[in-house]
């Protein structure tokens, strides 16, 4: 049932991609899928281990630095390497690139939470062994990364030697030719020497600027008492040597504990040693049992069952699994654009979280979703400071790319100018409240965030000829920058302002004391609240009467259209091959912009406008961003363009598995992974979260035999199963609830299936 991804071929061209695909993580710790034994000298691996939000700051160099440009940039750091284990068969070093591979299989088991490589290897001298490499990063004990290696002699083996290494002096990967990857500042950790304590190798390191600390405590052992052992430490490198008789199968285990000062404060090494002591009796299988139980609970709610397409079944599970592996589950972290799978975008959090990844957790694991919102809330003071740096007197401006709240985007036209991130964050807060009904959250975090983002719109925009207009911003489409009245930005601002008014009215009626405290803390008054409502009511939403579409911005339709058909395939993505100014002068979109707005806030436009806009912008969109296909798929479903919806969806589900963008080596495309889930649930099932209830307009793609999934809503668990022409709704958990099916109200009672036609 497609619970694994596998590789049975060893192509050098695929190795970097597979390092990302086979990465393991738990939201705190991430380890790329590197080979323990290493690679040939002529091959460059991106060898990496990362802790979510563990970073340093580096100076941003400008040719011409103007007021408000950020001085520094945050950068996720590669930390000490505990992966390395070399194996010698007599006097020959094991390598997949020497000798003969009689059998090779690599698997990532998504229902059990571990990866495995199995190898039947014949050495250049004809000696044969079976080797199994297993590894996991624990979901239950998040600091722990465990490796288990089993070596079985097959032919002419007299001695097996294992050399395990721990290296604390590491660097980050750089690629000066790709702006999506860091181009410098590779060396940002000051490594400490390694020492032995309590039978473990212990090392630490400190960042150069932020003075954050990290440690790794590594413990190795085997299942054979009869062996020789030696430990050798030279500065920042420790090597342990095990030598075994070659007549018996041997199992070697390496248990590594990582901790950082961001979560664990001081005395990290003592705390990590203590954890090693607490789990000293754990075998690899003990950790594996915990993994399996954790994942049974996860998949019981989150799994999506597709009958009729094994590749898509594998793709959607792969995407959901890696989202789980990458999402921060503590107040110190969020989910980066590449998760914990690689160094692309330097570990920064973008709007990707709220618009593309948050919905999956919102509808399946609301506790994780709430943590993401609380993390954004923890950065509110930094957002207030950023607003002042730009020149605003009030409100908060959330940074375009960040780790701990500072702006890390040096290219303001496609970074800071994307003020819509304020509306995106507000949107996610509103969605959470509508799904959860969490009144405490509504009164505290949501109220403050919506108030502070709303007052910023009054600073960014202005009233002109009876309209509220927002100038000099950039929408989601980064091929069109610094424009006036970007439709997406304006409509998200309108939604933000309207809901701030609703929050005010609700608190005034239900909790005037909280409202009084909030207004006092923010130095706000009723006159300001009234301005928010006036701005919302008079918000200018560009519309073209001739084309009957929402214009992307004031001048988009005045430009000539880029000839996409005449553009050579090797010139995509355009951002790597053409100067931004050239792109800005044409009607050409990197990704969904107005179309995305129509998905998120469909009630602000009529069906005719939405359809006309979709058809128009589809013709000028390159989909150079991985955030684009899923939105066009969702909206094609809404517009009953089912063949097109499926085609776009198929490009999202396996984007990383098939390396469709050619850069999976730098890390997985987390937003696209969330978008794949959205393509099913918001697209084919037609889910929309409204203020009053949840609505569905489902249909089953003709390529599938059935589709089944769950969502959580207001403390209930609702199951949907679609077959040809039918959908069955079942309330699995919780009190009776009303939902809407194609606009008609349906009451669900516990355990009683309700069948409906999928056709209107």
TrEMBL record:
UniProt domain Glycoside hydrolase family 65 central catalytic: residue ranges: 317-678
SUPFAM superfamilies: Galactose mutarotase-like (SSF74650), Six-hairpin glycosidases (SSF48208)
A Gene Ontology molecular function term of the record: hydrolase activity
One Pfam family this sequence matches: Glyco_hydro_65C
InterPro entries: 6-hairpin_glycosidase_sf (IPR008928), 6hp_glycosidase-like_sf (IPR012341), Gal_mutarotase_sf_dom (IPR011013), GH65_N (IPR037018), Glyco_hydro_65_C (IPR005194), Glyco_hydro_65_M (IPR005195), Glyco_hydro_65_N (IPR005196), Malt_Pase/Glycosyl_Hdrlase (IPR017045)
Matches recorded under Gene3D superfamilies: 1.50.10.10, Glycoside hydrolase, family 65, N-terminal domain (2.70.98.40), Maltose phosphorylase, domain 3 (2.60.420.10)
Glycoside hydrolase family 65 N-terminal domain span: 8-260
Keywords: Glycosyltransferase, Hydrolase, Transferase
All copies of domain Glycoside hydrolase family 65 C-terminal, residue ranges: 687-748
Family: Belongs to the glycosyl hydrolase 65 family.
Protein name stated in the entry: Glycoside hydrolase family 65 protein
Originating species: Halobacillus seohaensis
